[in-house]
Model the fold of this input.
Amino acid sequence: MEIHTPKLGRLINWIDRTDACPEWTFGLRELFRNLPAAGWRTRCEGLMIATLTRLFYRTLEAVLVFLLASMAIMVFVNVVLRYGMNSGLVVSEELARYFFVWLTFIGAVVTFRENSHLGIETLVVHFSRRGRLICMALVNIIIMTCSAIFFWGTWKQFPINASMAAPVTGMPMIWVYGIGFFTGGGMFLISLERFIRILLGPHHGQGNLHVRR
Done:
């Protein structure tokens, strides 16, 4: 059987009876060994990383929904108990505050990844594409610096926060203030990726740069 097109070339497939064909020796090991030559292994690895990244952020979004719903339920139940039965759940007040902290800092990473933070383009709109890329690089450097300081400050305060306990739940306060590790590290890595994409050029950075004119 032969297939031929001017753009793709010619494909010839010899067909014979099974008992007349030579033994098949090309297995999975040979397949993965030949993938780099065709560039498919790199593509598969990139697709796997992208899939895991999307799954990670989908999980974060589910966590945000859980935190927001739990916070609303705890506050609502506490209000009903306070005004209807002259009582309340002390634990819910404390957990609602902690959930709000986690909601804010986890949401900051998700929002930053989606480029949903507030941006002002009054000055940048007058620049050329090259000027905007330079501004983007500078902004990402500033964000990486602030995120690193935030991460380092959380690390320096780790022993103090780990030795302190919450008044009601008795939970170590590092579970509250330790969210700085996630937010500082997450925003640093996102900014670093964007900065590298800018340095590599338009073919590598068109996905997340969002340079408009």
Observations:
- Residues 40-84 form the longest helix (45 residues).
- The chain has a mean pLDDT of 83.
- The radius of gyration is 27 Å.
- Strands lie at 2-5, 9-12.
